[in-house]
Amino acid sequence: MALPPVLLLHDEAHGGALIDALARHGDGLPAHVLPLAVNEVTQIGLECIAAAFAYGAAAVRILLHAKPRHDPAGLYHTIALAEANLAGLGLDGTRIATIETDDPFALGDALHAITLGAPVPRPASFEPLGGRREVLRFALHELRRAASAETEVIDLPAGAPFGAVEIGDGCTLCLSCVSACPTGALSDDPDRPVLRFSEDACVQCGLCKTTCPEKVITLLPRLAFGAAAATRVLREEEPFHCIHCGKPFGVKSTIDSVLSKLEGTHWMYRSAPPRLDLIKMCGDCRVIAVTEEAFDPHDAPQRPKLRTTDDYLREREIKGES
Ligand code: SF4
Ligand code: SF4
């Protein structure tokens, strides 16, 4: 019975030479191993690995120098991500690994030693067109379809390029995270206070988390399919309506919080007519109200005199302290 295919990714200079040497001086590659030369093996991405398994590979091996010339840390991370994805879709076992050798016979032994799991039951045949991320998403969806998996969400290790964000209590809908998001995964609505999230667009860069003034954002590295990946509302609140023109502006809970903090505490908001009402007005009405009132913001009560280091030193001299 024919063995399921194994894809061997290698570079031309090192891998090509090893494969030639194995053919010339040994038994050559096993018949089910398909060699594919790439430009730089440490740059192989998740999209390439996912597509190989979606097309029906039972395993993928990546051939490296015994002492790789380029740092393989990124490749190891990609392999860990790929393993998590494959396991989540029911393709368990060591499906993907590196073979790090400069010896053609060691390469042959490593390929013969692969324990082959079953490939996907319904291999895909898609054209990997588009940008790298589009191809990756497409390949992962095709892989799930080919594996006949029902999985909706696969948890991924930290640093994965897919995932969700979770908003905890305390979000004020300031929308700083929307401005910070480079991919448009977070978005708002010009007509009402709402925070939306498109999981497909999130690259887990963490800029929203760093920007959030309330520190309520948590990143959830994961791969979601179907309804779990749909665009959703993360937070929504009632808008505050301008008491003058009725136009919605700001978030009701935020305006209420500002009002409770200023009421009776700040000189600017103590006088009549109730100046606190300015906080309840939209930007346009607030400007009109302040202009008509001829309010002088410099007419503040006398502040306590500022004490400087000189004042303290002079006091000491007067008291005769050293
Ligand atoms: S999650 Fe943070 S940054 Fe985003 S709207 Fe809420 S408070 Fe603002
Ligand atoms: S992690 Fe990055 S891409 Fe995802 S929502 Fe936050 S800012 Fe946007």
Q: Identify the bound ligands.
A: iron/sulfur cluster
* CATH class annotation of the largest domain: Alpha Beta
Give the strand line-up of the largest sheet.
2-1-3-4
What structural class is derived from the secondary structure elements? alpha/beta
Q: Examine the coordinates and then state which fold CATH places here, giving the name of the CATH topology of the largest domain.
A: Rossmann fold
Choose one word for the global shape. Answer: elongated
Mean of pLDDT: 89
Corresponding CATH architecture of the largest domain? 3-Layer(aba) Sandwich
Number of helices: 10
Percentage of helical residues?
25-40%
From the N-terminal CA to the C-terminal CA, the straight-line distance is: 99 Å
H/E topology pattern: EHEHEHEHHEEHEEHEEEEHHH
Task: Give a count of the beta strands, DSSP E runs of length 2 or more.
Answer: 12
* Largest sheet report: 4 strands, parallel
What does this entry look like structurally?
- The protein has 10 helices and 12 strands.
- The strands form 4 sheets. A 4-stranded parallel β-sheet has the order 2-1-3-4, with helices on both faces. The protein has a 3-stranded antiparallel β-sheet with strand order 5-9-6. Strands 7-8-10 form a 3-stranded antiparallel β-sheet.
- It is elongated, with a radius of gyration of 32 Å.
- Helix 1 (12-25) packs across helix 4 (104-112) and helix 2 (46-54) packs parallel to helix 5 (132-146).
- The mean pLDDT is 89.
- With 322 residues, the chain is an alpha/beta fold.
- The longest helix is centred in the N-terminal third of the chain and has 16 residues, at 73-88.
- It has 3 domains: 6-128, 3-Layer(aba) Sandwich (Rossmann fold); 163-236, Alpha-Beta Plaits, CATH 3.30.70.3270; 240-322, no CATH class.
- It has helices spanning 12-25, 46-54, 73-88, 104-112, 132-146, 176-180, 207-211, 252-262, 283-293, 309-319, and strands spanning 6-11, 33-38, 59-64, 96-100, 153-155, 163-167, 186-189, 192-197, 217-224, 232-236, 239-241, 248-251.
- The chain binds iron/sulfur cluster (SF4) (2 copies).
- Residues 167, 171-177, 195, 212, 214, 216-217 line the site of one iron/sulfur cluster.
